[in-house]
Each structure stands twice: as C-alpha cells, then as structure tokens.
C-alpha cells in the first residue's frame, strides 16, 4: 500500500546501520533491465566490500528473483539487502 511510510522506514534503517558497511547503494524506480545491467557491478563490488543495498518499490517477483540471483546475498559476507514493495 502506497503512502504508509515504507520508503521512509527503509531510509531511516539504512541511515542508522550504514556505518557497519563499506558501501551503500540506493536503487529506486527499479526496472528489471537496469538491475540486470548492474549485476556485474554488484558482483564485482561484493568480492571486496561489505555492502548495504536498499531497493525501493519492487513491483513483481521477477525483479525480486533477479536480486536473489546475485551471489552477494548467498554467503555470509555481511552484505545486506533492504527492499520495499508496492504489493
């Protein structure tokens, strides 16, 4: 449901814990093609850094599945993913 503060909460949480990470990334207006293009960058970064990624407005399962396909979140390197969804 739009307008209930999901993004505000995600931003506040990421701001509160960002000091624990080497890098943070905020992705809004998520499109499947743009995320697929960013996978190589994310995979390269995750090899050297502990990162926090905040993704706003995941609209469907295909977008979420692309996020989960990134090896970044399959091991315990300390990287984290925060997502908000409109569904």
UniProtKB/TrEMBL annotation:
Biological process terms in GO annotation: defense response
Gene3D superfamilies xref list: P-loop containing nucleotide triphosphate hydrolases
Alphabetized InterPro entries for the sequence: Disease_R_plants (IPR044974), P-loop_NTPase (IPR027417)
Name of the protein in question: NB-ARC domain-containing protein
């Amino acid at each position: 449901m739009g307008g209930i503060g999901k993004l505000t909460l995600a931003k506040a949480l990421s701001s509160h814990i960002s000091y624990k990470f080497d890098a943070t990334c905020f992705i809004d207006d998520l499109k499947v093609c743009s995320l697929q293009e960013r996978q190589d960058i994310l995979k390269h970064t995750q090899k050297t850094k502990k990162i926090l990624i905040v993704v706003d407005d995941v609209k469907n399962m295909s977008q979420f599945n692309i996020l989960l396909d990134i090896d970044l979140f399959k091991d315990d390197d300390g990287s984290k993913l925060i997502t908000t969804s409109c569904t």
